[in-house]
């Protein structure tokens, strides 16, 4: 290949081939991930919850704590958490 307007055809071809190879590897990895999730689901695990756990494990601990606290505040504001009074009534 030749250089055209300062662009090396060989260098460009090598980059394109690298990207194509990586895209193929990415597709293979995605297929493997789907297989693992399907296997987990087949033995009774909830894939949606597993994905949430994986996301949480990638986060910093303080970010997880902050997110959970904020979620509890929002849930309480919407009346989605049991009140302390109803917990006391259940204990009695």
Task: Please write out the topology.
Elements (H helix, E strand, L loop, with lengths): L2 E2 L2 E2 H34 L4 H12 L2 H17 L6 H8 L1
Antiparallel strand pairs: 1-2
Write out key terms for the chains shown.
mainly alpha; two-stranded antiparallel ribbon; elongated
Explain this structure.
The chain has 92 residues and is mostly helical. It folds into 2 domains: 1-44; 59-92. It contains 4 helices and 2 strands, in the order E-E-H-H-H-H. The protein has a two-stranded antiparallel sheet with strand order 1-2. Strand 1 and strand 2 form a beta hairpin. The N and C termini lie far apart (84 Å). The mean pLDDT is 90.
- Would you identify the regions where 5 or more consecutive residues have pLDDT less than 50? none
Strand order of the largest sheet: 1-2
Give the helix/strand class.
mainly alpha
Shape: elongated
- Strand % is under 5%
Output the radius of gyration. 25 Å
Tally of separate domains: 2
